[in-house]
Amino acid sequence: MTAAIYFSPTFTSKKGAVAIGKALADDGCITEIDVTRYDRVTEKTQFDRKDLVVFGAPVYGGRLYRGCKERFRKFSGNQTPCVITVTYGNRHYDDALLELFDLVKEQGFVPVAGAALIGQHTYGEIQVGRPDEDDLKEDREFAARVKEKLVLGEILETVPGNRPYIKGEEGGKGGNFRPLTAETCMSCGLCVKECPEGAIAEDCRTIDGNRCIACFRCIRICPVQAKNMNVAPYLEFAEMFTKKLSEPMKNEYFL
Ligand SMILES: Cc1cc2nc3c(=O)[nH]c(=O)nc-3n(C[C@H](O)[C@H](O)[C@H](O)COP(=O)(O)O)c2cc1C
Ligand code: SF4
Ligand code: SF4
Questions:
Q1: pLDDT tens by residue, 12-71
Q2: Which of 58, 61, 70, 251 has the largest count of CB atoms under 10 Å?
Q3: Which atom of ligand 1 is nearest to the CA of 173?
Q4: Which class is domain 2-165+248-254?
Q5: So what's the pLDDT on residue 20?
């Protein structure tokens, strides 16, 4: 079985992991295991040598989000080959790919290749629409090279990053913004159901500030744009941040 296991609140990490998985699978068919929701129950958690897994996760503060690590730790391999991918918003991935490299090895997987991919940043208007068709084409070309490596039985020796990871125990947290809900909310319940951390109460408006990780999934998926961040401090930050990260960066692949 070829599987893509991903945590992806705003769907960019998912796109890379799925594109690579599909290009790796002989018949183009993969099993998608979306662990974005904290309470997602997955049927398959054990993989063997004949399986192939692509992991996908976003970079949060140069690290893997700690809740994503918890979710990934539910899976174990038995010398199962895997491809590790992190997706980041055009600033940097710092130690996140190395953190994923270390985590999958602890879980019994064998990294064969890795990638640090560009995705639209959660905040501001940075690299909007990425990964785009060109990015996904690069992902598929990378997968073709991974296939060759799999045939040769070669593994990935290491990836960029440092240990101890930046920000130590403090790393891998979410952000500090807390979305607002406008009058236009029609109480459809979509954001309640889709919030990765179950932070939105049944009234569709009250957000538990301790659970919210500022992933902005609720803002992206709200069909009437009721969930929002239309407050001056955020808008000022977003404008500054967008200018700062305007120079597009390239996807990096490690074989
Ligand atoms: C809390 C938080 C922290 C982030 N930290 C970084 C970072 O350190 N470097 C970076 O380039 N992008 C950073 N981003 C942007 C995300 O990595 C990027 O938007 C990614 O594509 C989101 O993945 P997803 O669509 O799968 O949720 C951060 C986003 C959030 C929400
Ligand atoms: S998704 Fe939007 S409209 Fe639906 S409950 Fe949430 S905020 Fe309201
Ligand atoms: S309430 Fe917070 S954690 Fe939940 S989807 Fe919205 S931004 Fe993400």
A1: 999 999 999 999 999 999 999 999 999 999 889 999 999 999 999 999 999 999 999 999
A2: 58
A3: 1
A4: alpha beta
A5: 98
Indicate which ligand has the atom closest to the C-alpha of 172: 1
- Closest ligand to C-alpha of residue 212 is 3
What are the sequence ranges of the domains in the chain?
A: 2-165+248-254, 180-228
Residue 241: φ, ψ to 5°: -65, -40
Residue 213 beta carbon below 6 angstroms from any ligand 3 atom: yes
Cβ(186) – ligand 2 distance below 6 Å: yes
215 lines ligand 3 (CB under 6 A): yes
Whose alpha carbon is nearest atom 8 of ligand 3? 215
Class of domain 180-228: alpha beta
Of all ligands present, the nearest one to the C-alpha of 196 is 3
CA–CA distance, 190 with 221 (Å, rounded to integer): 8
Mean predicted confidence (pLDDT) in 143-151: 97
